[in-house]
Amino acid sequence: MGFSTSGATAIILIGALIAAGIAYPVFHTAQEERRTAIQDRDDRTLSMRNTAIAIDSWSYNESGNENFSMSITNTGSTTLSVAETDLLVDGVYQPEGTYETNVEGSAERDLWQPGETLNVTTNRTTELNRVKLVTEYGIAETVTEIGA
């Protein structure tokens, strides 16, 4: 065994150590990111399981004003964001500002606590068939056969 064999073995060993030194931080960071993503997913799943809403009442075109109003109670244990709660009318997303919301009579509130009621009012010039309210966690309630 000459110097060339020992030198080649040393070079290969040094190369393996350098590669391991570079790869370890990458694998460690990837594992941390994976762990964080799993924790975030579990948190979202728990919030989704603890979210529930129920439509208390709705009315359409009372006294000829062509308004649709509904009252929805947060029956779950999760606090919901009014700004992240979406309204769909006949399957069409309604951008914020095209309808009015208030929580327990206050239009300034953005948080919808458990046990509180959210009131939604929208003015429609066309006949409605279906209105859906969707929370930030994807929990939804639908009113159908409105114009019938």
TrEMBL record:
<keyword id="KW-1133">Transmembrane helix</keyword>
<dbReference type="InterPro" id="IPR002774">
    <property type="entry name" value="Flagellin_arc-type"/>
</dbReference>
<protein>
    <submittedName>
        <fullName>Flagellin</fullName>
    </submittedName>
</protein>
<keyword id="KW-0812">Transmembrane</keyword>
<feature type="transmembrane region" description="Helical">
    <location>
        <begin position="6"/>
        <end position="27"/>
    </location>
</feature>
<keyword id="KW-0966">Cell projection</keyword>
<keyword id="KW-0472">Membrane</keyword>
<dbReference type="GO" id="GO:0097588">
    <property type="term" value="P:archaeal or bacterial-type flagellum-dependent cell motility"/>
</dbReference>
<keyword id="KW-0282">Flagellum</keyword>
<keyword id="KW-0969">Cilium</keyword>
<dbReference type="GO" id="GO:0005198">
    <property type="term" value="F:structural molecule activity"/>
</dbReference>
<dbReference type="Pfam" id="PF01917">
    <property type="entry name" value="Flagellin_arch-type"/>
</dbReference>
